[in-house]
């Protein structure tokens, strides 16, 4: 199982998280975004998801194997 962290949950972030969650062999374990509104959206859709407003929390996490950086369009 590849454990993924996603940085950015704006326009494309929800689609990226959903695709990783549905893909066989991957699971999103954490999402980072500077926006409190975006973090609330994450928790509404995925109550078990770890969230943070600091990218460094994901970059230094020992339980994350890969990071997807989702930048604005």
Count of separate DSSP helical elements: 3
Largest sheet: 4 strands, parallel
What is the helix fraction of residues, given as a range?
A: 25-40%
- The stretches of 5 or more residues where confidence is low (pLDDT under 50) are none
Descriptive tags:
73 residues; alpha/beta; four-stranded parallel β-sheet; 3 helices; globular
3D architecture notes:
This protein is an alpha/beta fold. It has helices at 13-22, 36-45, 55-59, and strands spanning 2-7, 26-32, 50-52, 66-69. The chain has a four-stranded parallel sheet. It is globular.
Question: What is the structure about, briefly put?
Answer:
This protein has 73 residues and is α/β, with parallel strands linked by helices. 34% of the residues lie in helices and 27% in strands. It contains 3 helices and 4 strands; from the N terminus they run E-H-E-H-E-H-E.
Secondary structure topology:
Blueprint: E1 2-7, H1 13-22, E2 26-32, H2 36-45, E3 50-52, H3 55-59, E4 66-69
Parallel strand pairs: 1-2, 1-4, 2-3
